[in-house]
Structures are given as structure tokens and as C-alpha cells.
Specification:
Number of helices: 14
Structural class: alpha/beta
Number of strands: 13
Distance between the termini: 63 Å
Length: 450
């Protein structure tokens, strides 16, 4: 990795139980005059990442140029400014807003007396702190190893060749090859373990699919309030601390609305320039968004319009990257933090969106009604007659049926409802004549509901 040594975020000094966090100087190259999402937004995001990694921001060094220096990222003057800022603030780490090449990391390390983290390493640090389940921990470890593999390179005399010609390799080069082979072997082992867990989740998901219960996935920018919405709809108790990537493990919970069950799954949040290693490592987790019937894209209504648009593009890009083709409903959260003027502008810009304040329970009824209407489009009206000896079959439909009406007769229970097409076909042997609600006097056998 691109450091002198591991960056500890839990350094404690014995000063009356006061925890002294590492201090960081942020450095970045920003094109002059950039307006979307802007310099302030770019730096605010990296500072939020620092806060989530429990690293204290000390200062920042910004260079305005179109592209970073290929060798050292910063120009000579800004590199000296970075060194001075680290000395002045007594920072222990320099954090880059972008990803750095191995050569750029080496150049910055040579210029400053501090550890160096690029954007991907910082995000991986945050992920490692917030991974609690075994699968989440393995996925983070996999992403770290894949990142490390791309950064492994020889340095100095240790890696020099002893001579020229075929198979004339130095001891350092041989050690590098051994190290790479060890890392690749560990990556393969982790992939196998994660695949085993993914197969178990697919089996559980297939069981839900067979029951016909609607599947809803939550997606969106990190810290937009997905977990808060999950808790509000399902009475779950997922952690909702105000920091980036608080929730990494997919959490599925059910809720009931108008006699019908729904399964809601919270997924890992997205971020601008999300490292490919993380997308790859969390592929099995992100599968939930590819198999859902609908994706609720949760956005933070309190942000500026340009930042909302930029984050919406980021979420769309990641969903497209992982192959999610399900319909998407944009849900603006935190409307209790927005004044009436901004709300009017948001409603004008996004007329198809839903507006909620999940923490306060505002707008949840309208959102559930929207979901109910969405799934009702795929329902078919049925009229079934279940003999009393097979009443258990009827009870299995309660979680997937809508607008249920039951009538006990001499021959059995007449069950009228709206069912998913697959369930309607599965219970065809119990079918009576189709009858719209409110006209339940139709005799059995008159007509068909095909």
C-alpha cells in the first residue's frame, strides 16, 4: 500500500482518557473554474470520509490545474506547500482527494514526513471500521488485497537484478513474485468463502421469490438515510449514525401494507468515484438491487441542487455498472430540513419523486401507497374455492394477496383477491368464475379469468 506504515486511527495518549486522533492534511488537484459539483463539495466529501475514519482534518492544499502531474500529482511549489502544512499542523498523514499511482505515492512520500493515503485507501479504511458481519469483513479484506495487488512493486536495491539475460533475477524480484502469489492465493480463498455465502443468500432469495412477495431494494448515496427509512417502514433496529458507510451489510426486513407483505433490503451506499475493488468485492451484496422488483433511490433533499444532480448521476452509473434494470423510484429524504421555497423547486424539478422525512415519519403513507399501486399493476383478480380440507393452501396466499375477501360456504371457502400472475396460475385448480369486487354473487363455473 502507499504508506510508510499502517495508519492507526485509534492512537490514544494517556492524558486523562483523552483520545488523540491522527491529523491529516488533504491535498487535491481541482480544475480552475470547475462548477459541478464544485471545489467545496469535493473537499466536503473527503472531509466526511476522514470523520468516518476517525481522522481529524487539519488543513488542505489545493492546486488549480486541468490534470495532476503524472509523476508527483502536485507541482513542485504545491508539494513544498504540502510539506509546510504538515509541519505547521503536526499532521501525521497526507490524504489525497484522488487515487494515486504507485509512482505518485512514492513522490509524495519522498517529499513529506507523513503517511500517505489516497481516496481508495481512505474509503477502505472506513469500510474496515464499519464491517461487522463475517461476510462484510471478508468483502472488505478482499477489496484491500485486490487494491494492494495493484500497488505491489519493488523499490531500491533490494529489487535490483543481479545480472542481465534470461532468468537472471535478483532476490528482491523473486520475493516480489512470491508476495504477489501469496496475495493472489488469499484472494482466491476469500472469493470462495464469499461465493459460498452468496449461494446461501441466493437460496433464501429464491425462496422469497417463489412465495411471490414483492422485493424492494434501497439504493443511494451514502448517508442519504436508507437505513433510517428501513427502520421507519419495518421497525428494524439498524444503526443510523450520521457518518459515511455506517451500514455495509445487506439487511432484509418485511413490512405489511393493505393485507400484503413486502420485503425491503438495505444495501451498501454509493459514493463519487467508488473504487472498482469495492464494487467487485461487494458484488454478491449488490445483487439485491439487480433482482429487486423496484429500487428506491434515496436522496438527501437538504443538499444544493447541483450536488443532488451530481449524486443522482453517480447512483445511476453504479446501478448501471452492476446491471440493475429494475424500475427506480426517486425518494427525497430529510424534507424536514428544507424550507418551502426549496421544496417547491425540488417538486418542480422532480415531479415523479416521493418526498419524506423518514426519521419523523413524514410522507411514509404516500410512499407505501405508491409502492402498493406499483405492485398492484401486476396482480390478477381471482376467485378460488378451497375445500375445508385444503384450507392450509389458502393461508399461504395471505402474504401475497391484495384486496382479500373470504366467504364460508357449504363446499368450502370462497377466496377472492388479487394475486401475482405466478400465484394465480399455481392455484388454477381451485379456480371459480372471475368476479369483480362488489359483484360476488356470480355463480361458480360461469366464465373464466384468463
Amino acid at each position: 500500500m502507499g504508506r510508510r506504515g499502517p495508519v492507526s486511527t485509534e492512537k490514544t495518549v494517556d492524558t486523562g482518557a483523552v483520545v488523540v486522533r491522527p491529523r491529516a492534511v488533504v491535498f487535491a488537484v481541482v480544475p480552475a473554474g470547475r462548477g459541478d459539483p464544485g471545489e467545496d463539495e469535493a473537499l466536503s466529501e473527503i472531509k466526511d470520509l476522514l470523520r468516518s475514519a476517525e481522522i481529524e482534518w487539519a488543513a488542505d492544499v489545493i492546486q488549480h490545474r486541468e490534470t495532476p502531474d503524472r509523476r508527483s500529482y502536485l507541482g513542485k511549489g504545491k508539494m513544498l506547500e504540502l510539506k509546510a502544512a504538515i509541519g505547521r499542523t503536526q499532521a501525521t498523514v497526507a490524504v489525497c482527494e484522488d487515487d494515486l499511482s504507485p509512482g505518485q505515492v512514492a513522490a509524495v512520500l519522498d517529499a513529506v514526513d507523513a503517511d500517505v493515503l489516497d481516496r481508495t485507501e481512505l474509503i477502505l479504511t472506513v469500510f474496515s471500521k464499519h464491517a461487522h458481519s463475517l461476510e462484510g469483513t471478508l468483502q472488505v479484506h478482499l477489496a484491500q488485497l485486490e487494491y494492494e495487488l495493484t500497488r505491489m512493486r519493488g523499490k531500491g536495491l533490494v529489487m535490483s537484478r543481479l545480472g542481465a539475460g534470461v532468468d537472471m533475477r535478483g532476490p528482491g524480484e523473486t520475493k516480489l513474485e512470491v508476495d504477489r502469489r501469496v496475495v493472489r492465493r488469499r484472494i482466491q480463498t476469500l472469493r470462495r468463502r464469499i461465493d459460498q455465502m452468496a449461494r446461501t443468500r441466493r437460496t433464501q432469495r429464491a425462496r422469497r421469490l417463489r412465495t411471490g412477495v414483492p422485493l424492494i431494494a434501497l439504493a443511494g448515496y451514502t448517508n442519504a438515510g436508507k437505513s433510517t427509512l428501513l427502520n421507519a417502514l419495518t421497525n428494524a433496529e439498524v444503526s443510523v449514525c450520521d457518518r459515511l458507510f455506517e451500514t455495509l451489510d445487506p439487511t432484509s426486513r418485511s413490512f405489511r401494507y393493505h393485507d400484503r407483505d413486502y420485503v425491503l433490503t438495505d444495501t451498501v451506499g454509493f459514493i463519487r468515484k467508488l473504487p472498482h475493488q469495492l464494487v467487485d468485492a461487494f458484488a454478491s451484496t449488490l445483487e439485491e438491487t439487480t433482482l429487486a422488483d423496484v429500487v428506491l433511490v434515496v436522496a438527501d433533499a437538504a443538499l444544493e441542487a447541483a450536488e443532488i444532480a451530481a449524486r443522482e448521476r453517480t447512483v445511476a452509473e453504479v446501478l448501471d455498472m452492476i446491471g440493475s434494470t429494475a424500475p427506480r423510484i426517486l425518494v427525497f429524504n430529510k424534507i424536514d430540513e428544507v424550507d418551502e421555497g426549496k421544496m417547491a423547486r425540488l417538486r418542480a424539478l422532480y415531479p415523479e419523486a416521493e418526498f419524506i422525512a423518514a426519521a419523523e415519519g413524514i410522507g411514509l403513507d404516500a410512499l407505501q401507497a405508491r409502492l402498493g399501486r406499483f405492485f398492484d399493476k401486476a396482480l390478477r383478480p381471482v376467485r378460488l374455492l378451497f375445500p375445508y380440507t385444503e384450507a392450509g393452501e389458502m393461508h399461504r396466499l395471505r402474504g401475497v394477496a391484495s384486496d382479500v375477501h373470504e366467504e364460508h360456504t357449504v363446499d368450502g371457502i370462497v377466496f377472492e383477491a388479487r394475486l401475482p400472475a405466478a400465484e394465480a396460475g399455481r392455484y388454477a385448480r381451485f379456480r371459480l368464475a372471475a368476479a369483480p369486487h362488489g359483484d360476488r354473487g356470480t355463480a361458480a363455473g360461469e366464465g373464466d379469468d384468463d
